TrEMBL record:
<feature type="domain" description="Replication factor A C-terminal">
    <location>
        <begin position="441"/>
        <end position="586"/>
    </location>
</feature>
<protein>
    <recommendedName>
        <fullName>Replication protein A subunit</fullName>
    </recommendedName>
</protein>
<keyword id="KW-0235">DNA replication</keyword>
<dbReference type="GO" id="GO:0007004">
    <property type="term" value="P:telomere maintenance via telomerase"/>
</dbReference>
<dbReference type="InterPro" id="IPR031657">
    <property type="entry name" value="REPA_OB_2"/>
</dbReference>
<dbReference type="GO" id="GO:0000781">
    <property type="term" value="C:chromosome, telomeric region"/>
</dbReference>
<keyword id="KW-0539">Nucleus</keyword>
<dbReference type="InterPro" id="IPR012340">
    <property type="entry name" value="NA-bd_OB-fold"/>
</dbReference>
<dbReference type="InterPro" id="IPR047192">
    <property type="entry name" value="Euk_RPA1_DBD_C"/>
</dbReference>
<comment type="similarity">
    <text>Belongs to the replication factor A protein 1 family.</text>
</comment>
<dbReference type="Pfam" id="PF02721">
    <property type="entry name" value="DUF223"/>
</dbReference>
<dbReference type="InterPro" id="IPR013955">
    <property type="entry name" value="Rep_factor-A_C"/>
</dbReference>
<keyword id="KW-0862">Zinc</keyword>
<dbReference type="GO" id="GO:0003697">
    <property type="term" value="F:single-stranded DNA binding"/>
</dbReference>
<feature type="domain" description="Replication protein A OB">
    <location>
        <begin position="285"/>
        <end position="380"/>
    </location>
</feature>
<dbReference type="GO" id="GO:0006281">
    <property type="term" value="P:DNA repair"/>
</dbReference>
<comment type="subunit">
    <text>Component of the heterotrimeric canonical replication protein A complex (RPA).</text>
</comment>
């Protein structure tokens, strides 16, 4: 439901009647701010009336609204007294002259519908407060509203374009209409053949059919880089099409574009509404367990946790930066995503609780699933797509307080399945599970009785895909022998063996970082800090788990210890027992007899 103060559906009336000179326009319109951006001259909003959305801008902030408080601007309600309707860059805009802040609204539960594009009319319609009606004027759009260089004026087009998905080296006289989804920084290089210095950049272009990478070198950088702003739409033709170099691109397209002297690029704002802002085949988090390791995928979720960026040293002595974020979605699963270098540095910590779309992440299945953003990956905060609106609405309307679960691997190490029958610990031992040549897996309900280890964690390497133990040096840094690097601070990880009991037997089970966090309730880094500084908090964590029942998925496999054959039980997944669900399951079992 929309906020009761919002002027529901009013935007379609205002814009739909903008050509009717005698129409009485509403005054005191109440709209909600969904997004906000400020540049040197204007304040830009995405406005919402409970049903539709439209962009708006003003030169002064609404009275009573503190724009410096970035967290509180979104969802704010403003009452607009004096405004104009302008067709500009293919859209209708509200030019707000007088407005005031009246309070906060709820985040919309459904994605608003963008209103239709503007016609080619050069007129604007202005609402004047004392006359209380729309009157026609000549267009007074300032020249500085255009972001494109005057050397590239927009031209009319017949609207017949080649789809990106159809581009091949054999396509002749092609012309695409595409949006710049991503633009890299300008990078410099030295040619191995000529020894000359050069520069390059690349962009990702999207239309409804797909996406393709385009690269420009040297003079193309000077000519087009500033023009090709992310989010802008262009008609492009005359460039070369080559086979895609998958070493530098994770896009699915078999080919890529090289911009050269024969390339023509023209702004095409008139077609903006027909070109998607983003194209991605997102993998839901609850499906990650079935994705093979080293696969490259796209994900979208809410940044449930954003950790500090940390500096580390590579094997070659080069310093780099990493940052971890925890993504969650409606499936109630969570996954750790690692950002690297400039992507990690630029990620805004205030985006915790906001939707993040990431294109180009590599899947790892070491001790459960985790994701790492590629150098060619793209991280987009608050993308303007339906998936993002729906996720943000869910998270702000209760999703934040959900009980999220870590994702583990598929197959034998898979995500949790509900079995037809749990095994008791006695059944697992009497049936000699784990004593064959291949591991056995079973699910049981048991209690963790106690933790004997006082410090059930170890200092681990922070390098990608390395969790080896590090050793503290005399210079107070930590060294990983496997990676041959020194780091400032280790990442503590759980490794412990604990007794599990049910009413039939007891076994000792091994738990690693992801599974131990479930019953301890805090990360190993947090428990280490408690142990060093707050003994009471440490004791609380180590005693609070006692006698709680959990559902375990256990891997049983044979091993030799001191020349004695035995079974090792490793926890691959765990979640707290839901007694309502378990009671219903018992009733179903009873009815079968």
């Amino acid at each position: 439901m929309s906020d009761p103060q919002i002027s529901y559906g009013v935007l379609s009336n205002i814009i739909g009647h903008s050509n009717d000179s005698g129409w009485l326009a509403p005054r005191g319109v109440v709209l909600q701010i969904l997004k906000y951006k400020r540049d040197e001259k204007n304040i830009r909003f995405l406005l919402h009336d409970g049903k539709n959305s439209a962009p708006g801008f003003c030169t002064e902030a609404p009275e009573g609204l503190d724009l410096s408080d970035l967290e509180n601007v979104p969802n704010s309600l403003i009452r607009i007294q004096n405004y104009s309707v302008r067709p500009m860059k293919g859209k209708y805009y509200l030019l707000i002259r007088t407005s005031e802040y009246i309070g906060k609204g709820e985040f919309p539960s459904e994605a608003p519908t963008a209103l239709p594009v503007a016609s080619n009319s050069t007129e604007i319609f202005s609402f004047v407060n004392d006359q209380h009606k729309l009157t026609k004027k000549e267009d007074q759009t300032a020249s500085n509203d255009s972001r494109h260089p005057q050397s590239h004026p927009q031209k009319k087009s017949n609207g017949i374009f080649t789809e990106i998905s159809a581009l091949t080296p054999f396509t002749t006289k092609w012309r695409i209409c595409a949006r710049v989804e991503y633009r890299s920084d300008i990078r410099t290089f030295r040619s191995k053949t000529s020894g000359n210095d050069g520069s390059l950049f690349n962009i990702t272009l999207v239309d409804k059919s797909g996406e393709i990478r385009a690269t420009g070198f040297n003079e193309i950088v000077e000519t087009y880089y500033n023009m090709l702003e992310p989010g802008s739409v262009f008609v492009i033709s005359g460039a070369r099409i080559n086979s895609a170099n998958k070493k530098y691109s994770n896009l699915k397209h078999d080919y890529e574009i090289t911009l050269d002297r024969n390339t023509t690029i023209e702004p095409a704002d008139d077609f903006s509404e027909s070109v998607p802002k983003m194209i991605a085949d997102f993998t839901p988090l609850d499906k990650l367990a079935d994705v093979e390791s080293e696969s490259v995928i796209n994900v979208i979720g809410v940044a449930h946790n954003v950790y500090d960026a940390t500096s580390q040293m590579s094997k070659t002595g080069k310093e780099y930066t990493k940052r971890d974020i925890i993504l969650v979605d409606k499936s109630l699963f969570m996954v750790r995503v690692t950002l690297w270098s400039e992507t990690a540095t630029k990620f805004d910590e205030s985006k915790q609780g906001h939707v993040v779309a990431i294109k180009g992440v590599r899947v790892s299945d070491f001790n459960g699933k985790s994701l790492s953003v590629l150098a060619s990956g793209l991280v987009i905060n608050d993308p303007e797509i339906d998936e993002a609106y729906n996720l943000q609405g869910w998270y702000q309307n209760g999703g934040l307080d959900s009980n999220f679960k870590w994702i583990s691997n598929s197959g034998g190490d898979g995500k949790f399945e509900t079995p037809e029958k749990y095994l008791t610990l006695q059944e697992a031992t009497e049936n000699r599970l784990g004593m064959s040549d291949t591991p056995d897996y079973f699910i049981t309900m048991a209690v963790i009785n106690r933790i004997i280890q006082r410090e059930p964690y170890y200092p681990a390497c922070t390098q990608p895909n390395c969790n080896k133990k590090v050793v503290q040096q005399t210079n107070e840094k930590w060294r990983c022998e496997k990676c041959d690097v020194e780091i400032e601070k280790p990442n503590y990880r759980y490794v412990l063996s604990v007794p599990a009991n049910d009413y039939t037997d007891q076994i000792w089970i091994s738990c690693f970082d992801e599974t131990a966090q479930v019953f301890l309730g805090v990360s190993a880094n947090e428990l280490y800090d408690y142990y060093q500084s707050n003994d009471e908090a440490y004791k609380h964590v180590m005693e609070d788990y006692n006698h709680n029942e959990y559902i375990f998925k256990i891997k049983a496999r044979k091993e030799f210890f001191n020349n004695v054959e035995r079974v090792r039980y490793q926890v691959v997944n765990i979640h707290p027992a839901d007694f309502i669900t378990e009671s219903r399951k018992l009733l179903d079992d009873i009815q079968q007899y």
